[in-house]
Amino acid sequence: MSGSRRGFSLIELMVVTAVSGVLMSLALPAIQQAREASRAAACRNNLKQIGLALHNYESAHGRFPPGSIPSGAGSWSVHGRLLPFLDQANVYDRIQFEYQWDDPLNLAVGVQQLSIPSYQCGSDPNSSSLCDAGPEEGLVRPVNYGFSFGTWFIFDPRTRQGSDGPFFPGSSLGSSAIADGLSNTLAISEVKTFQPMFVNSVDPGPAVPTSPNQFAAWAGAASFELGPNLNDNGGHTEWCDGNVHDTGFTTVFTPNRIVEYVHSDGRTYDIDFNSRQEGSSPTQRTYAAITSRSFHPGLVNTTLFDGSVRSIQDGIAPEVWRALGTRCGQERLGEF
Question: Band of the pLDDT at 221, cuts 50, 70, 90?
Fold first, then answer.
């Protein structure tokens, strides 16, 4: 007897294809969730390492690093000063801290272009991109973790008064200055790279904004760093720069709050705001609304000054979030 092979019929093939498609559609979300869980765990580990570096810095120097040095724009960030405590001593040794980060002497060694793994969150699709900061600064890496500069007021260049947060230009604080308690005070929180923003506006005054609608009134004389292309957006694009819009955050708005601003190009942007770039004026105060944002659904990861890493939900009460951002507000937080 001669045997014959029977192939799949068209209907059978269509059924197999359909079942395979259904199985793939069911498996894909699970795979994506597993990948995000892995990225979120790596993000929390980054925050843990940066928190440990902060305390090791304090042990070595008797204080936490300053938010920047108020000697002019371009001062080195907290991130730059923590490098030896993040196994990056070889990078640190290439920096001349007596000069601004964008001084030709520092730009020549290329430190600003280096990718520092502890400063990048894998959930941000732009975290490893290079920012083209222009001919005077060249290519610079962005950053996903900002240090807490307090609520709204940042710095007065006339009096050298700083914010109610633990970091600000010229800050020189130790653990004893965190009077609200180390477990009640934010040190670090997530931020998004290439954030739309505007800077150097009219003086908005000391009253903390309560609505994104207020920012349009301050935009008239501002410099804008926003647009449809990635490099049009200048917030959190320079890990080495101590300005609050590059390496800090404030607690005006709760995590992942959309701060809508309709620009003259007709587009609506989710913005950050810095009224006066620190070091760019000898007289005008700096106020800033730099929102903590992340690509993790519904939350941002943070580090408190006791070294603990906490995931803060978007729905946290505004008064609790602001209280966490102050170092000596005497707020009673309870559980959050």
Answer: confident
Q: Supply the pTM of this predicted model.
A: 0.89
CB 263 within 8 A of CB 320: no
**Tokens in use for 143?**
């950053």
In the chain, where the domains are located = 34-325
Are 77 and 241 in contact by the 8 Å Cβ rule? The answer is yes
The pLDDT tens digits of the residues spanning 224-249 come to 999 999 999 999 999 999 999 999 99
Q: In whole angstroms, what is the distance from residue 127 CA to residue 235 CA?
A: 12
Radius of gyration of the chain (CA): 23
Cα separation of 252 and 215, whole Å? 12
- For 78, the token pair is 């907290």
Q: Are 165 and 149 in contact (CB under 8 A)?
A: yes
Q: 182-196, 224-238, 317-331 — which is least confidently predicted?
A: 317-331
Please give the single-letter amino acid code of residue 49: Q
